[in-house]
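Q: Structure tokens for this one, please.
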Amino acid sequence: MILVVGAVSFALVAGAAWGLWGRPRDATEGFLVALAGGALIVSVTIELIQPAAEATPLAWLSLTVLAGAAAFTFLDRWIETRTKGSDGAGLLLAITLDGIPENLALGVALIGAGPAEVAALAGAILLSNLPEAAGGAKGMCDGGMSRRRAMTLWTLTAALLAAAAVTGNLLLADVGDGTLAHIRAFAAGAVTASLATEVFPQAFRDDRYGTGIAVTLGLLVAFALSQLSGG
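A: Here is the predicted structure, written as tokens:
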């Protein structure tokens, strides 16, 4: 578990460094974000919603997924209105809000599962963290923030999201199947909403029509990984 969580969180630090000193092209960022988004579609379905469906009725599952999506949407909108015009702080908060359900989902998915069974989910989150952090750090620098401060903030964010994954894994390991199903479903709804409001719009803005190809490739890669792991 530590290796998986560490790799996923380190991607934020590496992405921030890439954005601050490497200055990646917008099209490259957009393509990678779209690729990760396509992979997350499959991963959320197979690693979160499908296991939850085995322990709770469809009606309750659907309501919980919708609750997760509504919670993310409300908080995302609240953060946007409170931080508009700031020097990258809004983007950092949005990505943190996006990352918490993703990493909680990763921690929950790791309960009772080997690394191979969550390869698609961990890989998709890692792949999305790189370009998201690169774009966020670059935006902070362009807004007047020093590279040192921006790098510090992204490192702290990586630590927070790593803690979310560990918390999801350790504190929820002994809860009942029904409770765990609702937690998985809520996280799935939040991640799905983040795809619609944060991931795909950014990808299309940066990469335009290459986004469709990238999303499809990400979906196929995640599905192939799920088949190899017996998902």
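A few notes: Residues 2-228 form one domain. The mean pLDDT is 81.
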